[in-house]
Design brief:
Oligomer: single chain
Largest sheet: 5 strands, mixed
Strand order of the largest sheet: 1-4-5-2-3
Distance between the termini: 45 Å
Radius of gyration: 14 Å
Length: 106
């Protein structure tokens, strides 16, 4: 019996431990290979990674239709390069999921 993504505690812990902030410059090689995926600040990066690893097509398709998950565009890449952006990053092979830091509410 396969574990549902929302109940996969072990995978969630593993992904959380492997999530790191990286400068965009270190991710450009992956971007050139077309494997960098943007995750909106509205979503939980670890949850998205768990669902990608479980191949949860319904959730992924919904997020893509809402533009909350998408391949990183050339414009995003250029802006992140120019600003020296740090991004939250996790790998779900073959993809590298990236998320800008969430805006802090004051």
């Amino acid at each position: 019996m396969q574990t549902k993504p929302e109940n996969d505690t072990e995978l969630r812990i593993k992904i959380n431990r492997e999530t790191a902030r990286l400068p965009w410059a270190e991710l450009q090689r992956h971007f050139a290979q077309g494997t960098v995926v943007y995750v909106s600040e509205e979503l939980d990066l670890v949850d998205v990674a768990v669902r990608v690893s479980h191949d949860d097509k319904d959730s992924i398709a919904r997020w893509m239709s809402e533009s909350k998950v998408a391949r990183v565009s050339d414009l995003q890449a250029q802006a992140w390069s120019e600003s020296g952006a740090l991004l939250w990053t996790c790998v779900v092979s073959p993809f590298v999921l990236v998320q800008p830091e969430k805006s802090r509410l004051h």
